[in-house]
Amino acid sequence: MKLNYIKKSILGIISTFSISLIIIYVFNIPLHEITAFTLQLLLLSLIISLIRLISQAVRFYILLRLFSNADFKFSESILMRGSSEFFALTTLPFLADEAARTFMLIEKGLPPTTSFSIAFTELILDTVVGAILSFPSGLYALMLIERVLAAIILLISLLQITLSLMFIVFSKEKRIHFLEKIKPFIAGRKHSSQLITSMLKDGAREYSRILGSIFSTKYIVYLTLLVMLTIIVILTPAIILYGILLEYGYNSFLNALYAFRSGEILGLLPVTIGGAGLTEAGVYLYMERVLGIDSWSSVIKWRIATYYITLIITSSMLVLISIKYFKRSLTQLR
User: Fold this and answer.
1) Counting CB atoms within 10 angstroms of each CB, which of 169, 193, 194, 298 has the fewest?
2) 33 occurs within a structural domain
3) pLDDT class for 260, splitting at 50, 70, 90?
4) Residue 216 in domain
5) Which domain holds residue 170?
6) How far is CA 292 from the centre of its chain?
7) 290-330, pLDDT tens digit by residue?
8) What is the pTM of this model?
9) What SS3 class is residue 38?
């Protein structure tokens, strides 16, 4: 993994931690409230976080088995998928972890086009399923006359679904030439990636093969399994929020899911690292304005129980996979 990529992630962690401290200071949240974790809550958060990472790894493994010729072990899929999640947590939203997975798959010998297309398929699944699950959250806010928050949730969800459907429709081979036309525009941008622009030109056929296949009737069983795994991935943070709200006397999982999806939608805006600040604001605003739950401390506890615990797990996976990579590099040099 390139050193400057790691450096940016370290800066991202510092930035995210700083935003959490600012929220605690500005809203005068007592430290004893957000650090009072019971053993049951810690175990719940750890188990749920592991279930989420394993579900992502299983989904990743299925895509690798379906669309690559390489012989990947499931343990390798867990390490790759988990370590790439580290970058999703520590960099700006969109394509950070997908780029990391693409890089790792290329290092394992997969063609760049296949590597990127597999990672991009995961992004499409997360986007479509997440947006669909966000709609009830927006509709419920609209029913309770919270029009501004409802509009933000519904509009962003609709935009996500529309863009995703466009990519799925354009996955038909005869319609994918627009990707090559995008290349000259992107290539001229200062911070564009030469690897990504090259794949836009050379990978149209592979993109069509993978994305077009997975959304066809031939692969309906695999698509169903992938969607179920994606639902698990999306629901797990809401389960942790529900567990925390139980300690505050609130016992509706559906409301916890609505609040979580609100935070996820606002956190998608490419403004802060890992959605820091915006995610918390989205969860709190929904809880306070729609559900009548005024508790910043529960939101910060939820952030610690999801973000920071997952960060510890995924950073450990990144260290393990980096050690294996450097060992292999040293062996090749000899």
Assistant:
1) 194
2) no
3) very high
4) yes
5) 3-20+40-59+71-333
6) 28
7) 988 888 888 989 988 998 899 899 989 988 887 776 555 44
8) 0.83
9) coil
Longest CA span, the chain: 68
- Contact between 249 and 257 (Cβ < 8 Å): no
Give which of 8, 63, 72 is closest to 209, Cα–Cα: 63
Q: Is residue 189 part of a domain?
A: yes
Q: How far apart, in Å, are the Cα atoms of 57 and each of 80, 82, 98, 248?
A: 8, 7, 13, 33
How far apart CA 6 and CA 11 sit, in angstroms, is 9
Average pLDDT value for the chain: 80
Q: Which residue from 171, 166, 165 is spatially nearest to 132, judged by alpha carbons?
A: 165
Is residue 236 within 8 A of residue 124, CB to CB? The reply is no
Strand positions, DSSP E, the chain: none
- In which residue are the tokens 């960099």 written? 91
The domain total for the chain is 1
pLDDT by residue (tens digit) across 169-218? 776 554 455 444 544 444 444 444 455 555 555 666 777 788 778 877 88
Element (H, E) at 182: helix 178-187
Going by C-alpha positions, the residue among 54, 104, 94 that lies closest to residue 74 is 54
Q: Are 89 and 100 in contact (CB under 8 A)?
A: no
In this structure, how many other beta carbons lie within 10 angstroms of the beta carbon of residue 243? 20
Q: Residue 220 falls within a domain, yes or no?
A: yes
DSSP 270: T
The radius of gyration of the chain's CA atoms, rounded to the nearest angstrom, is 20
Of 109, 123, 114, 98, nearest in space to 64 by CA:
114
